């Protein structure tokens, strides 16, 4: 499993300009099963994505994000193995 942390590199008005295309990409990635969760960081300095996809699939998807291709955000990908989860989140366990 992967946590992807996005950090904005540009002013907010440029982020806002690219946000609709980014959100369309997020929806496509969810529809393709790449992401399990997504949301904005607090404070709003970027975002976080949770992915259960394999690394090549994740990397291919991230490369298509308009925030990436337009230099809006930098991405940090953190891999981890979910070994313990709260009740109801068993689908997140690594097998």
Characterize the structure shown.
- It is built from 3 helices and 4 strands.
- The longest helix is centred in the N-terminal third of the chain and has 20 residues, at 12-31.
- With 95 residues, the protein is α+β, with helices and mostly antiparallel strands.
- The chain has one domain: Dimeric alpha+beta barrel (Alpha-Beta Plaits).
- The termini are close together.
- Strand 2 and strand 3 form a beta hairpin.
CATH homology group: Dimeric alpha+beta barrel
Low-confidence spans: none
Compute the number of helices: 3
Distance between the termini: 11 Å
The assigned CATH architecture is 2-Layer Sandwich
**Portion of residues in helices?**
25-40%
How many individual domains?
A: 1
Oligomer kind: single chain
Task: Give the overall shape.
Answer: globular
What class do helices, strands and sheet pairing give?
A: alpha+beta
* Nearest-integer average pLDDT: 95
Total number of strands: 4
Q: Major sheet, described briefly?
A: 4 strands, antiparallel
Radius of gyration using CA atoms only: 14 Å
Strand fraction band? 25-35%
CATH top level assignment: Alpha Beta
**How would you spell out the order of helices and strands?**
EHEEHHE
């Amino acid at each position: 499993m992967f946590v992807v942390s996005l950090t904005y590199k540009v002013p907010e008005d440029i982020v806002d300009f690219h946000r609709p295309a980014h959100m369309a990409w997020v929806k496509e990635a969810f529809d393709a099963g790449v992401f399990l969760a997504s949301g904005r960081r607090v404070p709003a300095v970027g975002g976080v994505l949770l992915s259960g996809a394999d690394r090549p699939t994740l990397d291919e998807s991230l490369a298509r994000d308009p925030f990436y291709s337009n230099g809006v955000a930098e991405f940090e990908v953190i891999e981890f193995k979910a070994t313990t989860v709260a009740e109801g989140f068993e689908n997140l366990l690594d097998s």
